[in-house]
Amino acid sequence: MPAELKAAIAESQRQLQARAGTKAVRWVSAAQWHLTLKFYGNVDSEKLSGLTNALRAACATAGPFSLSLGGLGSFPSWQKPSVIWIGIGGDLAAMANLEKSIEQRTAVFGSRAEKRDFRPHLTVGRVKGNAHDARQAGQAIRTQHVPELGKWEVREIELIQSLLSPQGSSYRSLAVLPLT
User: Fold this and answer.
1) For 117-169, how does the pLDDT look when each residue is reduced to its tens digit (9 = 90+)?
2) CA Rg, the chain, in Å?
3) Is 169 helix (H, G, I), strand (E, B) or coil?
4) Phi-psi region of 67 (alpha: psi -120 to 50; beta: other; left: phi over 0)
5) Catalytic residues
6) Domain count across the chain
7) Which domain does 20 fall in, by range?
C-alpha cells in the first residue's frame, strides 16, 4: 500500500483507539498490517521452494487489480468482538479469483483447508480481556465511521513468515511474486 494510504489507516486507528477508551483492544502496528489470502501454518523448510513455485503459478493467472479501504467491522460480532477490521473494496472478483487459484494450487502445503468464506479485511485491532470490557469496546467502536481511505493497485503478493515472540508477531518476506 502507498504511504499516504498507510497514514490514513493510522489516523483512523487513532480515532478508533480514542473512541474505544479501553485497554481491552491491542492495536496492530503499521508493520503488521497485511491482507491474508491464505494461511499455511507450519511449512517444512524443504517445501518452501515448491510452495513458492505453486504461488508463482497462481499469480501467473491473475493480472494487477485495484483495491480500496473503508468501512469498519468486527469478527465475530460487535457483541463479542475479537478482531476489529477495516473493510476491503474495489475489484473483489479479481482478488477472489486469485485467492481461489492460490487455494487450489497450494492446498498440499497448508495444515488445513479453509472452511470459511474468504472475507477480505485489514485487521487494525485485537480485542483481549474479559467479556464486559470487550463488549464495551465493541459498542463504542461500532459507531465510528471509517470513510473510504483510498485506493491502490495490487501488482504483487508476498509469501510471509510469521515469527512469534512474547512481544507479538513479526513478519519476514520469503518471496515477492508479481501478478502477471
Assistant:
1) 888 999 999 998 788 888 888 998 998 999 999 999 999 999 999 888 887 77
2) 17
3) strand
4) beta
5) 34, 121
6) 1
7) 3-178
